[in-house]
Amino acid sequence: MPKAFVKPTGTDWERVKREAAADTPIHDQTGPYDPNDPAATVAYWQSATVKRGRGRPTVATKRPTLNMRVDADVLDAFKATGPGWQTRINAVLRDAVRHGVAKA
Predict the structure, then answer these.
(1) Which residues contact 15 (CB under 8 A, 6 or more apart)?
(2) In Å, how far from its chain's centre is CA 83?
(3) Is residue 39 a contact partner of residue 49, using CB atoms and an 8 Å limit?
(4) Which residues of the chain have pLDDT under 70?
(5) Could you tell me the pTM of the whole model?
């Protein structure tokens, strides 16, 4: 059975393993704490806070998920308006409720 081809990654994994096993001190002191000092490392991570990254911001009232069928040309027209087309559909429906076209 032939050997599987392994794509080279450009990383010297043997060197990485040697340095990890040797537990060599880190000489880069540009970070927020000294990584060679276990007490400083623990203190830094105990005071760290987690910030939410990208994504939708939290809202007070969650909207329910809706799965509905619409005509393809209507959907295409809203999608053609660019990002935010779902929000615009919601605005049109809200306006219809406000004007009595649909009862709330």
Answers:
(1) none
(2) 18
(3) no
(4) 1-3, 24, 29, 104
(5) 0.43
